[in-house]
Write a structure and sequence with these properties.
404 residues; 19 helices; mainly alpha; Serine Threonine Protein Phosphatase 5, Tetratricopeptide repeat
Length: 404
């Protein structure tokens, strides 16, 4: 079989390396990839510099080198891939399909090298290359969204490093452009919408421009509307929409915004089937909204309903899940709020019991664990004030120390 491959290599030239590359893709055997690269490099060495096929062959060779880098993490493979792509770029006619392909591929290689070395010049050049690829790609091309997506990813990475808001502005404009040319049936549409939401809310936190938050809410509503009721990502979309609505309420302080948010959550709960995976999330947010409204109106009916909703969420959420732990904490908080109104000691006792369960079930690295500790410490101190039990005070102080 090896003699047959050798004969085929000699007859096929550059294409012979594709035999080994296909074997590598099928088997994962790096020796096949190494051999493919050897054949390709040898064939390229025999090509005339003005060969029409040379730019494409250089791109394929660089792709193979990038594949080997992903396996071995040898930086020299990326350096060599970048060098071959620079050569391809210099040989390609500006605006041609291979020219645009090379721009994108070189951007990919430089982006990978930036992740390895953190050399900012590689990221800057990648942004330039992706921008050029987008400029040379017709608006009707199916490749344009990917070029713009690559550009956005690098712009966001540079923004995180430099905090230059112009990079975030440019990324948001590009995400908007992606959406304008992407159909509702695109498998990547939800990713593009999610990226735009993240960018808009990120900019809102910096500028407090309400227009960004309003647009983010529009985008999140589209995500929710276009996701099926049982989609695994739907609870996350609802969670993000709820946070955005709360951000708008916090910005305006307008009670009408809170009422509108509660109405949205009421609809979300109505639309959630009794056994749906996202029903606990929806119940928790509606309960939270009612608790906020209680702070304005002091209507005990809002607290009563919030507790009923939290009880249902607790029953539905899988034991030990994030939703279950948050429901334990949230129900405890509402019970403590109602205790302040009713002075019913049993409600304080139950609130403490729920928090203890949450802490017992929460793993050490659970993000909200410190919140649970703080809440339980506060509840124990409240019980100490009533009963005078020194054990509660000592335990509360110990929990307070564990928060740090």
């Amino acid at each position: 079989m090896s003699d047959l491959f050798t004969d085929m290599e000699q007859e096929m030239g550059f294409a012979g390396g594709g035999i080994y590359f296909h074997l590598y893709q099928s088997s994962g055997n790096l020796s096949h990839l190494d051999r493919a690269l050897e054949v390709w490099q040898g064939a390229i060495g025999e090509m005339a510099n003005d060969s029409a096929e040379l730019p494409l062959c250089l791109n394929l060779l660089s792709y193979g080198l990038s594949a080997r880098y992903e396996q071995k993490h040898n930086l020299s493979d990326l350096d060599e891939a970048a060098r071959f792509l620079e050569r391809s770029l210099s040989l390609s006619e500006v605006g041609s399909s291979i020219y645009v392909q090379t721009l994108n591929n070189l951007g990919n290689v430089l982006g990978m090298r930036y992740e390895h070395t953190a050399d900012a010049s590689d990221l800057d050049r990648a942004i330039q290359l992706y921008g050029q690829a987008a400029e040379h790609t017709p608006s009707t091309s199916p490749d344009l969204p990917q070029h713009l997506h690559n550009l956005c990813s690098c712009l966001l990475g540079r923004f995180v490093r430099s905090k230059n808001i112009s990079d975030l502005d440019r990324a948001i404009r590009a995400w908007e452009e992606i959406l304008s040319i992407t159909t509702a049936t695109s498998p990547y549409r939800s990713m593009y919408l999610g990226n735009l939401d993240n960018g808009l809310r990120m900019r809102y936190t910096l500028t407090e421009n309400i227009a960004d938050l309003e647009r983010a809410i529009e985008v999140l509503r589209i995500l929710v509307q276009e996701s099926s009721p049982d989609a695994p990502e739907r609870p996350d979309y609802l969670n993000r929409l709820s946070h955005a609505l709360l951000m708008r309420y916090a910005h305006s302080g307008n009670f009408a915004d809170l009422e509108g948010t509660i109405q949205t959550w009421e609809r979300d709960v109505e639309q959630a089937a009794p056994g749906s995976a996202d029903r606990p999330v929806r119940l928790n947010f509606l309960a939270y909204g009612l608790s906020l409204r209680y702070e304005h109106t002091r209507r005990i009916a809002d607290l009563d309903r919030a507790i009923q909703l939290q009880e249902e969420a607790l029953r539905l959420a899988p034991l030990g899940s994030r939703d279950h732990l948050q429901s334990l904490n949230n129900l405890s908080n509402v019970l403590r709020t109602r205790y302040a109104h009713s002075n019913d000691f049993a409600e304080l006792e139950r609130a403490i019991h729920l928090l203890e369960r949450a802490l017992q079930q929460a793993p050490p690295d659970f993000p909200e664990r410190s919140d649970f500790l703080k809440s339980l410490s506060s509840a124990l101190l409240k019980r100490y004030e009533i009963t005078g039990d020194l054990e509660d005070r000592e335990r509360a102080n110990k929990l307070a120390g564990e928060q740090h």
